[in-house]
Amino acid sequence: MKRLARALAVRSKYDCGVGYRVDGMTALALLLRRLAFPCRLKDLLRLFRLKWSVTKVGRVIHAIAGDLARRFGPKVQLSQALFKDADIYAKAIARQLAVKGMRNPPRDLCGFVDGSRIEVCRPMRMQDVLYSGYKKNHNLLYQIIALPNGLIVSANVFPGRYNDAKASFVSELDALVPAGYRLLADSGYGKSRSVLALDRPQRKKKANKHRMQSRSTAAVTRDNNDESVQDQAETDQHGGASSTQETLRLARQRRDRKALSSVRTAVEDVIGQWKEHFKAMYYSKQLRTLGSPNCLACLHPNLVARRFGVPPPPLELYLSA
């Protein structure tokens, strides 16, 4: 915690107004506990054994949260400097795709993008903007861009009525992602210069009744004509070869799609860590929109970084970039 305080340049004292001056480490501890789990201010007094008023605790948390938001808020929206090692990320993802069985993995995938919905209280105004017909509740759509080292490049927020495709269009991902690289996404995203979206699995088409009847009629006619039977045998031979090639092609597509889908789950692991360590972010009755799981990923090893073999940067380097 002391290392985090030094990297964040936490002040020695925070002036919270009305004569309240609090030690910086105490203020940081209160803020972290408040974000780690939804709790009442009265519970914080009991946990930290403070003989303060509830008003003072609220002022302290708002003072340090406002200070950190002013200085490090842009990093929550976009940390484009993290793309400087895009070549290393692309090699790590291609290596994992090869391990999963993909013969010719793409060499330009440097990260992942996915959307995560967070339920919020029903607002008094603009309820239709935050209401999602898919989830049947009021929520915010977070568009998460993650890297193979477990860090989050961007966490843009959109109204709940947006879907993934519209959020990617509004956020202009083509301008955010470096030229020559793409992000791996699920089938909800549209394909573009900067996004490689997974193809939806093809469904088997139902047999046409009229087509089946015409085939039966043709079979009866071929039985009465030897020459037609011979021609049909040759056609079936060539058709069988093409059918085998089509089967192999579909099997290869399924294998590649399975490999891409397996690797893409890394962004879901990053979002899962966010949910685990910042539970207050997912408590609809007191939503907090500014928290940085990247600091936690830099301080402690994470699952995604171990999977791809790409360690995150030191905490001080990340905050100073």
Automatic annotation (TrEMBL):
Signal peptide: none annotated. Keywords: Metal-binding. Residues 113-284 form the DDE Tnp4 domain. Its cofactor is a divalent metal cation. InterPro entries: HARBI1_dom. It holds the Pfam family DDE_Tnp_4. It comes from the Eukaryota. Residues 202-213 have a biased composition (Basic residues). Residues 195-255 are annotated as: Disordered. This is DDE Tnp4 domain-containing protein. It comes from Salpingoeca rosetta (strain ATCC 50818 / BSB-021).
